[in-house]
Amino acid sequence: MSMPIAECALRLLEEEHPIDDYKGRVPRWCTGCGDNAILAAVQRLCRDEQLAPEKTVFVSGIGCSSRFPHYMNTYGFHGLHGRAMPVAQGIKMRRPDLHVFVVTGDGDCCSIGTAHWIHALRYNMNMTVLMHDNGIYGLTKNQASPTSPQGLKSKTTPSGTLLEPINPVSVSLGIRNASFVAQAVDWIPDMLYDIIEAAFHHKGFSFVRILQRCPEFLPGRFDEWVKDPSRMLLLNHDDGVKVRPELGKVYQNLEQHDPSDRNRAREIASTYHPMPVGVLYRNQEMPCYEDLRKPDRLYTPDVIKSVLEKEFDQFTIHPAA
Amino acid sequence: MTPQALKKEKPAVRQPQERPQKSGKRSPSGGKPQRGSLKEKPVQELREHIVEVISDSGEGAQRCGQSMASIAARMGNGIWTVEIIPAEIQPPARSIAGGSGNRVRLASDRVTNGGDEAELVVAFNEQVLLGRIHAHELSPGCTILIENKWRDDDDAEIVAAYTRTIGELEESGYDIQEIPMERECLKYVADPKRGKNMFVLGMLCSIYSLDMQIAREQVAFIFAKKDQNIIDNNIQLLEAGFDWAEANLTFKYCIPPSPMTEPQIVVNGNVSLGLGIMASGMEVCAMYPITPATSVSHYLSEVFETVGGVVHQAEDEIAACAFAIGASYAGKCAVTITSGPGLALKQETIGLAVMAEIPLVVVDVQRGGPSTGLPTKTEQGDLLFACFGGHGDNPKVVMAVSDIEDCFYSMITARKIAETFNTVVVVLTDASLASAQQPFPRPVISEDWMAPPVDQSEISAGLVPYDWDHRTGLARRFIPGQPGGMHCLTGLAHDRKSCVAYDSDTNQDGMQHRSLKLAALQKTLKTPPVFGDSEGDLLIVSWGSTKGAVEEAVTRLQDDGHKVSSLHLRFIQPMPSGIKDVLKGFKHVMTVEGNWSDNLDHEIIDEENRRYSELAWLLRARFLVDVDCWTEVRGRPIKPGSVVRAAHQRLQRKE
């Protein structure tokens, strides 16, 4: 059956999701919170990729950043502190049709959920992880986190933290099965978008640490980098993210970094002076757990029945003839 | 049921030096052996017998006992097996605590529990035997068949220990029969450590008049994955054991089997759970290794993928539960299997499933607690924890399985309830059921057990994810992929749209509806039947694996003229209606459980500080009935004889 071109175009228009289709409730983050920039980038990505809202799931833990799924008009799972990754794995395991995003924070991921984070890197399931790292517990109001800078005074560390922070990018790169490790900052929104986009397109577990400003409890935490572009290092590569030409005018400190070079990635990750931004490591060959465990048959009553009968046969004793 | 064995004459045995030399009489290729002495021996007919086979770990006593049970079951005998497991993987050889083996209760009729003390024991050394004697698992004066190679050991200390022990046991009245197991096995194999158990199996086949053709088939089945020469070798040892016993032991029993009318399945409780999980149509099992639950996953790991299911071994117990919740949220109903410590770790995630109304089946194969407790031994210590664990109001369904068949069907029931009520169903079983075997009728598979594929149809405008029904508390469930159903599920208090609750009434509303679901389920449950008369002097209430032992004890008490009945609970939370009326029919009510309770005999224990057993607490609180309790936590299944004694004590106590 033929269809007038106008109607066809109308239908196309109808099926197109404008950005508002991805906007959920009104964000309740503080004014100036870096989470807002991340939300904007993600909503843009969904629109640009035209992700079906019903086929998209945002899974989070607990913390300021973990409110994220409420602000998306997709499926969302706002679960328990630290447990977003295993929930997301359970969702993805038998639903490869769903786009799964995990939104987590430095407390959620690098403290209470550390075991899950390490193992999630190892499982390498196909999902995009946005780790909002502001270096402070915000929702519980100002306690030091594992990524707080050494010496930070907080409510639980009135005379300053004693320990060096952990470096989530270095830790991730330490896991043999890691397949995508990137670092972004909320104050370079174009680069943030490009990195999240690359993460989304990577098949595997894409870990993006996003340095994110907390104006309430840690204002000025990243000022030395925000205010001085020369202290930033933008990683440029065809296989990672290509730095946009207009950004290059402001951020002149560029490095051609091949994301398949894990050793160089480790070197880059090891310092914040300069602060690297971009895709540090990417390995497209790493198999995904859900593919390795993919069943070779459909789960139907007929199959179950025939296998069960066979199993019963093995254990059955029969009345004497 | 008359469970007591007929009193047997103390049999005599020929002394080893009088034994006729048999070597050369039979061909080693397994040709027809001579069994001339069979007819000369009196065959004593028994209704039932309890036999234990016990060895060092790795000597195969468990396989021997299980095989013997399978052979008897195939002949139509009732069986119940109990595994005897040391806590360590490789405990030191010849140690009292390191014994490994199997208890088999054989009977003419159906058996529902492991019974009282063993009446015949085969021991591979005297130390593991002492372990069983110290645990009071052997009946006084019972027959002991023991490997006698220790008498000639190179180590003088071993010789001394062996001869001293045998002397003491003989003096205590045990009927000791020293058997040259190793010497006989050496005629067929170079290393008798492998194969002695088959020799013993052959002996037991002779002693209990078991069918040798079925025994050969059983041995072939055990070694099915091995080379033919290994099968032949083991059958040779089996026959050697049989022939030796025929020629040298002067006693022989026969436990006439009841004719079997329908095909039966012989598996242990954990395999039964695994079969039930498949039959229920659940697709995902997420777990973390923990004794004694793990063997469910061992079995499932072998077969689940052939039906398209998956067993996921997570990085920890919490992740296992969270993974199951994720799968279930995405429309693939999931089960997580654990034991007490794991259940403790999972509590927060279980609370999330309750709060967000995600179907989830949690299996707790209970072991001794608290802490690491008794990892390999049985207990019923998690009942209240299963009901009330977790912070805040956490209404979830708790059911307990009572036997091996129940393990299978409870998985189907649990999944149905979980998905009908969108809630968590905790299924309690325990270490004793995990490894016990008991035949049950082969299930006739129904497609109704397996839920239809998830509904992915569009949600009409205006519908909300938690449209709680004010009568039942039930709400619909939107599954990712359903157009129009987008919402953000949350573990925070939430309203019908799944929005975070910021006002005071919303939390009250949500709590009310989640709680109502248990009441709605309760309305569908039938009052459990009373075992015995509905009125009398004493009602014993039980739950879980103690059912068989309690009902056997009640039968014995009734046979002795006592007005005792029992009531077994399958659903603990919610509890079916009508129970209070049952309790009211008896002068005394007492629970029998495998968990802790203070004994009033202790000098500082009285009614004001006594800690009751777990079900007793529940019954007292709910029904305002003075429910007493008798419990023990010895890490082993409760024996019917212990229940009989406890009932006598209760009946004699005046108050």
Q: How would you describe what is shown here?
A:
The complex is a heterodimer of chains A (321) and B (655). With 321 residues, chain A is α/β, with parallel strands linked by helices. Chain A has a single domain (19-295), classed as Thiamin diphosphate (ThDP)-binding fold, Pyr/PP domains (Rossmann fold, 3-Layer(aba) Sandwich). Chain A is built from twelve helices and twelve strands. A nine-stranded mixed beta sheet of chain A has the order 2-1-3-4-8-7-11-9-10, with helices on both faces. Chain A has a two-stranded antiparallel sheet with strand order 5-6. In chain A, helix 2 packs across helix 7 (189-201) and helix 4 (106-112) packs across helix 5. The radius of gyration of chain A is 23 Å and the shape is globular. The model of chain A has no long low-confidence stretch (mean pLDDT 95). Chain B is α/β, with parallel strands linked by helices and 655 residues long. Chain B has four domains: 33-254, Pyruvate-ferredoxin Oxidoreductase, domain 3; 265-449, Rossmann fold; 455-524, no CATH class; 530-652, Rossmann fold (3-Layer(aba) Sandwich), CATH 3.40.50. Chain B is built from 19 helices and 23 strands. In chain B, the strands form five sheets. In chain B, strands 11-10-12-13-15-14-21 form a seven-stranded mixed beta sheet, with helices on both faces. In chain B, strands 3-4-2-5-6-7 form a six-stranded mixed beta sheet, with helices on both faces. In chain B, strand 5, helix 2 (126-134) and strand 6 form a beta-alpha-beta unit. In chain B, helix 1 runs parallel beside helix 5 and helix 6 (212-222) packs antiparallel against helix 7. The longest helix of chain B is centred in the middle third of the chain and has 21 residues, at 228-248. The radius of gyration of chain B is 27 Å and the shape is globular. Chain B starts with 42 loop residues before the first strand and ends with a helix. The chains are: A alpha/beta (321), B alpha/beta (655). Strand 2 (75-78) of chain A pairs parallel with strand 17 (488-490) of chain B, so a sheet runs across the interface.
